[in-house]
């Protein structure tokens, strides 16, 4: 996310929504990762990740739930605050949890305001034209919105599981129409999850706002992954996931070495002890 200066290009001190928009217009891909705690957030900031998503995926990746529908609003406030207190440069996006916006615009604004107070700079919610009133209300309240279409995890039961969306021509056309409705309602960006690459390329070309893909091919303006998947910690190896490290295996190796040294009284040694 370079910003031009007299001496060349330099990264802006703070990533704003306009920087994502500028990246789309310049054809410059940007990256987003989930983050839920100070250690991961600070590492991602140091790596130059442009946007951090405090996702409702915290319910499945950290809290041990089987579905994101179990993630509560209080969970989101807690983890959003943790990340917000830990970083400065990345754009901080937080999910509206299941049940916090479906009832209508007033409910959406109420819960989004609390997320903003916790440190969120943008909120994300799932759905298309059906939640356009909520998006308009949020934008009218001064709260930037990121949409989410394709496979929407909070609707996993209605969608009969984790399934690619928009494969048939009619379904693809509907997905494009829903994306346009989200944009028209005032969203500043949109996540496309488990969408055929050709369909996401079409949506990206038709929208003026940035698209962010997860299992949606290379044509989106940005990409997002759950960080535990990206780092090989979760053990999830979906088709769209690339593990850039194997932290799960390394953590197990370290814990095993610690266990063995404690059992053998090799740790703590004299260098770890006080006189």
Offer a quick outline of the entry.
The protein has 275 residues and is α/β, with parallel strands linked by helices. The protein has helices at 17-26, 38-47, 58-61, 73-84, 105-118, 132-140, 169-185, 197-206, 227-230, 247-263; strands at 3-5, 8-10, 30-34, 51-54, 91-95, 122-124, 145-150, 189-193, 211-214, 222-225. The termini are far apart.
Question: Would you mind describing this structure in some detail?
Answer:
Keywords: Cytoplasm, Magnesium, Metal-binding, Pantothenate biosynthesis, Transferase. One of its GO terms (molecular function) is magnesium ion binding. The chain has 275 residues and is of the alpha/beta class. It is 39% helix and 15% strand. It is built from ten helices and ten strands. The strands form two sheets. The protein has an eight-stranded parallel β-barrel with strand order 3-4-5-6-7-8-9-10, surrounded by six helices. A two-stranded antiparallel ribbon has the order 1-2. Helix 2 links the parallel strand 3 and strand 4 (51-54).
Termini separation comes to 52 Å
Describe the strand arrangement of the main beta sheet, using strand numbers. 3-4-5-6-7-8-9-10
Mean pLDDT: 93
Shape descriptor = globular
By secondary-structure content and strand pairing, the structural class works out as alpha/beta
Oligomerization category of the chains in this entry: single chain
Order of helices and strands: EEHEHEHHEHEHEHEHEEHH
What's the helix count? 10
Please report which band the strand proportion falls in: under 5%, 5-15%, 15-25%, 25-35%, 35-45% or over 45%: 15-25%
Radius of gyration: 20 Å
Binding site for Mg(2+): 56, 95, 126
InterPro entries: Pantoate_hydroxy_MeTrfase, Pyrv/PenolPyrv_kinase-like_dom, Pyrv_kinase-like_dom_sf
Function: Catalyzes the reversible reaction in which hydroxymethyl group from 5,10-methylenetetrahydrofolate is transferred onto alpha-ketoisovalerate to form ketopantoate.
EC number: 2.1.2.11
